[in-house]
Protein 1
Amino acid sequence: QVQLVESGGGLVQPGGSLRLSCAASGTGSIFSINVMGWYRQSPGKQRELVAAVTSGGSTNYADSVKGRFTISRDSAKNTMYLQMNSLKPEDTAVYYCNAGVRRYYSDNYDLYWGQGTQVTVSS
């Protein structure tokens, strides 16, 4: 079984920084991971893409976070990060990670989600 575990959320003042991590466990069964991404959802709103990174290192960001957030991954550790700087109150949300995972003895990539970590930006 593959699990994604997020960490690093919390309460921060406007203008502050946080670093989120997403680690894929069950690594003994993971053959490869293609795209990994961060999404967020705040009350009353749909879940939206924040940033994504491919296995080749290509990145994509939502316009609202460009220049403030940086996504990265350590493929050897099956771990992804989101460095969030210059945080704003509107960044407050539950942040979820996802990953396309191919397991051994499978030809398919399946999408897995983490349980989410709360980020609150408030003074």
Note: The two ends are 40 Å apart (CA to CA).
Protein 2
Amino acid sequence: QLQLVESGGGLVQPGGSLRLSCAASGFSLDYHAIGWFRQAPGKEREGVSCISHSGGSTKYADSVKGRFTISRDNADNTMYLQMNSLKPEDTAVYYCAATKRLAWLIPSGYDHWGQGTQVTVSS
């Protein structure tokens, strides 16, 4: 069974931080690039960040540059998204995804998806 499970979402005040985790089971992330995506109500799913299979290359959406950091721990088969200086516009369901293709931040390029974790930035 190929599965990705996100965790770490929740309610946070503007300016706060959250760290999202994505654990893979049933397959290894070693040969996959991985990405984080988000979808707010009424909006299309958008790419937030991605990281190469080795962790050597990363990309970020302009809206999160300088605030979010993507990382991975292949030994633990887990990926992370550290989110700092959160803004209300960051509110969305966040999804992790994996692909063996060169997909960058294009959702359609990813093969495996988690169920999502809600991040709400409000106060």
Note: The mean pLDDT is 95.
Protein 3
Amino acid sequence: QVQLVESGGGLVQPGGSLRLSCVVSGFTLDYYPLGWFRQAPGKEREEISCISSDEHGTTYYTESVKGRFTISRDNPKNTVYLQMNSLKPEDAAVYYCAAGLGYYCTGHGSMGSPDYWGKGTPVTVFS
């Protein structure tokens, strides 16, 4: 019954923008941090961003996307977004959202592991 569904991926030119969405069901988003991960062919899955469940909405970004990507959440809609600007070819990957009660987000990164994962949405950056 717990489900995370990503959308918004697609083909974009270098320097372009996309907004990814992650709609969650089966639990209330208010109490769950949310992380965005990505995996490119031949590479390991990496965490690129997370947002805490507290009122401050503490966020973290990995260095390679800092200043270009923005994570946000809309709890009444049970939706988390990832706004991606100034996209580079190296950003091409399948992007996943993930959540879990034992998963925490701080300004320095996450702790624990997500319990629930989406199936991913692909992002291609190509001219």
Note: The chain has a mean pLDDT of 93.
